[in-house]
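lol forgot to send this yesterday, sorry. struct tokens for the thing we talked abt
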């Protein structure tokens, strides 16, 4: 089950980027801006089954580990 953690407080439409925590998989799920710039993508090794998204540094505040000030799990 996905647990909503936060949306970008500076998003002009309040829609994206968004951060979720997947409680079953113990992973984070991001909704963000799709990276399509060929020069940037060429600097990465991206398997066919993966994609790349971008989110602003200010979104780090929503990670539970940052909120608690340590390595605590979500």
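and heres what i got for the seq, position by position
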């Amino acid at each position: 089950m996905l647990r909503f953690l936060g949306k970008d407080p500076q998003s002009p439409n309040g829609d994206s980027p968004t951060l979720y925590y997947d409680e079953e998989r113990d992973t984070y799920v991001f909704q963000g801006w799709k990276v399509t710039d060929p020069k940037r993508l060429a600097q990465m090794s991206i398997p066919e089954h993966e994609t790349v998204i971008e989110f602003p540094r200010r979104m780090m505040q929503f990670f539970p580990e940052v909120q608690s000030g340590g390595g605590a799990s979500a």
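The mean pLDDT is 88. anyway ping me if u want another try
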